[in-house]
Recover the amino acids of this structure.
């Protein structure tokens, strides 16, 4: 048997930082990353044979729990028929129809056509190309602290790993490309109006996380998405709603379906849950826009593995099992864990707020609820690493960054939830004793 530390040493000799995605290196929580060998339901097991209750959920896809038998069987069955054909399959159409049918509200069907891709990064990248192709304009507006994947134009002041590493953006992005992205503060309609007043006729699209979850959870202000859509549309631009993280997670129709104020996005991007744990993501929108994509239109996009039959099978099986009962279980477990976290931190005298967007939540070590990236960054983030390490030591795997959401699954039953709840008081005390770096 090897240890996690031995695995990490070996990995660092083979891969930059020992990882294939930066946050996995556990740098911001000063801990040895765990190397997992198996997972089932709400549990993951590392190379040392230790089992943890998991609140990362593969960063979202494992919404039914790990290795859900129906999803595994669907993938096995698909694999037995061939790993991929580089050609069309009936399953792709069925998944596209399923996505279109689920994303509806008050009779509106914003998704008439779907293009399947392999990652959320591809989905947002394609949505932006499509918006530029449709409008003939170049500029894109994004919000500070929002993460839309790692394409060149979207890394400025990005959340998730870029925030965790406290990077302003990324080296290697040409200045000419960075200049095509305008970054403004979130939840600030004044800033939206200003940027449109200044450059409205050059702006192709605003891209927004439907309910931001990559700087911790920062819910949209009441009516923000609707007001944003109005401003964007008044200037002939498009609203790209990024539901890669929230889509099919916070409800059957994603955040689009539960925002307190209905609104009309133009393009919607999906990922994570829609692939059921395998590499699959999607862009959806009205036929008139989506059919600007090749082969019908002039906007080119393609992919060797797009619509891969195993990924399609995993996505379909996952969506099929995400019924009202599954969402009710996720919501109930999320409420219990969130309330227990808040009371443990209160008990330990730790100043904090717990922000929620549906069943997604995270803790922020601040007195007032952060509303944008600046207020998120102003929190006492130094309290998170000891909190995280204390949870891990007690067998609970939290996201290794204060800037990430906690992902609850439908498999988090009473036993799993109790293990989390029991671990929280010691972690809260560790947070209380934390000192600034
Ligand atoms: C809102 C959002 N958009 C896009 C992405 C990028 O997805 P992927 O990591 O599959 O490229 C993410 C990933 O975390 C995300 O949360």
């Amino acid at each position: 048997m090897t240890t996690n530390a031995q695995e990490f040493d070996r990995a660092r000799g083979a891969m930059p930082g020992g990882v294939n995605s930066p946050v996995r290196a556990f740098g911001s929580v000063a801990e040895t990353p765990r190397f997992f060998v198996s997972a089932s339901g709400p549990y993951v097991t590392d190379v040392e044979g230790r089992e943890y209750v998991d609140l990362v959920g593969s960063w979202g896809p494992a919404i039914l729990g790990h290795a859900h038998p129906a999803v595994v069987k669907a993938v096995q069955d698909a694999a037995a028929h061939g790993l991929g054909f580089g050609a069309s399959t009936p399953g792709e159409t069925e998944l596209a129809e399923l996505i279109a049918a689920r994303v509806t509200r008050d009779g509106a069907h914003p998704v008439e056509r779907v293009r399947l891709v392999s990652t959320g990064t591809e989905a947002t990248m394609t949505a932006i190309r499509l918006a530029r192709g449709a409008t003939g304009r170049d500029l894109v507006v994004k919000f500070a602290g929002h993460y839309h994947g790692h394409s060149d134009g979207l890394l400025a002041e990005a959340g998730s790993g870029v925030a965790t590493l406290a990077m302003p953006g990324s080296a290697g992005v040409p200045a000419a490309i960075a200049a095509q992205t305008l970054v403004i503060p979130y939840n600030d309609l004044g800033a939206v109006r200003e940027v449109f007043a200044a450059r409205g006729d050059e702006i192709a699209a605003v891209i927004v996380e439907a309910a931001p979850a990559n700087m911790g959870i920062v819910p949209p202000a009441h009516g923000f998405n609707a007001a944003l859509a109005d401003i964007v549309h008044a200037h002939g631009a498009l609203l790209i709603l990024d539901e890669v993280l929230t889509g099919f997670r916070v409800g059957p129709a994603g955040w689009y379906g539960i925002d307190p104020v209905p609104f009309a996005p133009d393009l919607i991007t999906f990922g994570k849950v829609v692939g059921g744990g395998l590499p699959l993501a999607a862009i959806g929108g009205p036929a008139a826009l989506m059919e600007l994509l090749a082969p019908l239109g002039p906007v080119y996009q393609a992919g060797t593995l797009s619509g891969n039959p195993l990924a399609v099978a995993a996505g379909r099986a996952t969506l099929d099992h995400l019924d009202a009962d599954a969402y009710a279980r996720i919501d109930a477990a999320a409420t219990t864990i969130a309330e227990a976290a808040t009371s443990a931190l209160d008990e330990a005298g730790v100043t904090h707020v717990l922000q929620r967007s549906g069943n997604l939540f995270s803790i922020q070590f601040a007195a007032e609820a952060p509303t944008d990236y600046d207020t998120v960054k102003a929190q006492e983030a130094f309290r998170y690493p000891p909190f995280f390490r204390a949870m891990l030591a007690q067998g609970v795997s939290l996201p290794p960054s204060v800037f990430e959401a906690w992902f609850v699954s439908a498999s988090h039953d009473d036993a799993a939830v109790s293990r989390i709840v029991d671990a929280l008081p010691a972690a809260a005390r560790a947070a209380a004793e934390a000192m600034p770096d």
User: Anything to note?
Assistant: The mean pLDDT is 97.
